[in-house]
Write a structure and sequence with these properties.
Elements: E1 10-18, H1 24-32, E2 40-46, H2 57-71
Parallel strand pairs: 1-2
Length: 94
């Protein structure tokens, strides 16, 4: 399928789960060998975590919003290849 998009410069692997689980790490080598020359693979996922979910519904909703926004963003130039999303909780103090 990727040869149809020879001018692509970025491909996104989107997964709803944390970056350290799921298919992203398993399929990365296979996808990278099929990328057009000069293209980069970017992972859009939740921040790496020992648990598959936050357990706090408002935070889950915010993470989903950030993930979907990032998946459909016009450019991935600000994110390094295979970077993960680290959404923050609204109203949380630093």
């Amino acid at each position: 399928m990727l040869p149809r998009y020879a001018s692509a410069r970025g491909v996104r692997w989107f997964q709803e789960g944390p970056a350290n689980v799921g298919g992203g790490r398993h399929v990365r080598p296979r996808i990278e060998t099929t990328l057009p020359e000069g293209a980069r693979l970017h992972l859009v996922a939740r921040k790496a975590s020992p648990t598959p979910a936050t357990g706090f519904y408002p935070m889950h909703v915010e993470e989903e919003r950030v993930l979907i926004e990032r998946a459909f963003a016009a450019a991935m130039t600000s994110a390094p290849p295979l970077s993960s999303v680290a959404p923050t909780r609204r109203g949380a103090s630093a």
